[in-house]
Amino acid sequence: MGHVIFIGAGPGTADLITVRGARLLGTANVVLYDALADPTLREYAPAADWVDVGKRGFSGLPGRDSNGQARINELLVQYGRTSGTVVRLKGGDPSIFGRLDEELAAVKAAGITCEVVPGVTAALAAAASSQKPLTRRGSGRSVSLATAMTRTGDLHATRTADTEIYYMAGRQLASLSQRLAEAGWPAGTPVAVVSRAGWPDQLSSEHTVATLGEAQALHEGRPTAVVVGVGATNVSPSSLGGEEAGPAT
After folding, report:
1. How far apart are CA 59 and CA 54, in angstroms?
2. For residues 166 and 175, what is the distance between their CA atoms, to the nearest angstrom?
3. Which residues share a beta bridge with 92?
4. Are residues 112 and 154 in the same domain?
5. Cβ(8)–Cβ(117) under 8 Å?
6. Going by C-beta distance under 8 Å and a sequence separation of 6 or more, which residues neighbour residue 133?
7. What's the domain count of the chain?
8. For the segment 75-104, what is each residue's pLDDT rounded down to a tens digit?
9. 109 and 25: one domain?
10. What does DSSP say about strands 85-90 and 30-33: parallel, antiparallel, or unpaired?
11. Nearest-CA neighbor of 14 among 187, 200, 174, 247?
12. From CA 5, how far away is CA 84, in angstroms rounded?
């Protein structure tokens, strides 16, 4: 019986993987990798058997069908039983919209040991590259990560945190604008849109809830994170405030 390691590859270029993730990737006999993982990650495990199990909702590659989740689960169990160390390499962080729960359940049901190595999720890469912190002292005390699209294809938005980040909304930004307004966000609320966060061709644009639809053409067909609220505002010298009561440091 083998051992399965779920590793977050980060959202973009290979150097966003963690040191631990890179080290354990190098021990792999088999790597089941996502479509969004940087191909140069192969350099960490050149002798491994690399198996493409990517879902290509954004790739647009002709003749390349997405792998169904059930098939991925089957492959994890198949290789996990026969192939020593198996790495499931996922873009971003495995536990953030990565269907990690389903894959863990399949591996555990088969009696295969496993572990999870965290990675940098797209929301954090978007915040870092745009220099827009998701939390701010005194004004940004909560962050919500959400997927705008449900399994049935419905589009949802809420207003439950100071900063809200929506994944997988790049194709419906105009509709998301409407849903945000319906959820109670004022029309002038800042919105930052970042597509392909962490890659050299990353694109960033600034909007409001009312004008979010204008970003559609710019980010069409690209993995996109939409940041709404406090975390979408720019940092300026005026952000330097007086000391406030808070936890000791």
Report:
1. 10
2. 13
3. 10
4. no
5. yes
6. 127, 140, 231, 235
7. 2
8. 999 999 999 999 999 999 999 999 999 999
9. yes
10. parallel
11. 200
12. 11
- The helix or strand, by DSSP H or E, that contains position 23, with its residue range, turns out to be helix 19-25
Shared domain check, 92 and 197: no
- The CB-side HSE value for 99 (13 A sphere, CA atoms) comes to 15
Q: How far apart are the first and last CA of the chain?
A: 47
- pLDDT, tens digit (0-9, with 9 covering 90-100), for 161-179: 999 999 988 888 999 999 9
Range of the domain at 129: 123-232
How many whole angstroms separate alpha carbon 134 and alpha carbon 97?
19
Lowest-confidence pick of 53-62, 100-109, 121-130, 154-163: 53-62
Torsion sign across C-alpha atoms 51, 53, 57, 62 = positive
3 state SS of 142: coil
Record the tokens describing residue 63, joined without a space: 């003749």
Predicted TM-score of the model (pTM): 0.87
Catalytic residues, by residue number, are: 34, 55
Pair (23, 43) in one structural domain: yes
- Residue 165 sits in a domain whose CATH number is 3.30.950.10
Residue 83 CA to its chain's centroid (Å): 28
Note whether 75 and 131 are same-domain residues: no
| pLDDT computed for residue 126 by the predictor | 96
| Per-residue model confidence as pLDDT tens digits over 14-48 | 999 999 999 999 999 999 999 888 999 999 999 99
Token digits for 165? 């980040």
